[in-house]
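pasting for ref
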Amino acid sequence: MTTKRGLRLFLMLSLLLAAALPVRAHGSTSIELPIDMPAEAHAAVIANGTPFGDFVLLDDALIGASQYYEVKGEPGSSATWIVTYTYGWGDCQAGCISRHTFAYQVDPVSGVASFDSQQGDALPADAPEGLLMLEALNGAAGGIMPITDAEPAPSGQPGLDETDWAILYEDWYNDFIATLEPCTSDVDPADPAVVTCLLPDGSVAGPMPLFAPAPGPGPVDGGEAHGDDGWVHELPKIILAVLLAWVGGAALVGWRKSRANP
């Protein structure tokens, strides 16, 4: 029984540690090699985790499309395929006033698709989120900016690859607060069984979600506001410390049992 509980705890800690670290997602589309058709070149790009699943192949019968792709390549040859994705907006029935394109190279032998370039007008704010992310990160898939491609920002200005985790956490916290019901007048904030609710002063009574700041008003973590992102850096250390403590405890129990049963 102890072994099963220990294994269950280890799995839970491993999942928490994995969730705290950046993860890069990959598509699961199966690619048949070698690539010798335009549709296969497009599938190779999609399998790389890109947000072009709704784009359609451009042909003479396609009129008024705002999301389409074109493929250049020689079927049956070893030449690299070029797949260009176009997102258009503004009177697309007449050909789209503005456009932004993303180009990819696809190796026909290995099926590896790599980002080549982007050009055109800056995407509008209402463009699909995946395309906006791709534009901001200059083609980096999964929200990861290659170090070799990162250019230093001008002095005093934030870089495109900088993520303000404090602001993201602040937004999440505000969204969470907005879902809470007001507490009843007789609620006891110190009662551990109280259902999470919002006190008149704006503080929270009751249990908070994982990684949320402690309930109640005032600063958190030694004077910093609840938007502080220190937990992002400290969480893996805490999980590792708990895991090592568990392993050490299990080893000590096993040693005592071995001495008790020579």
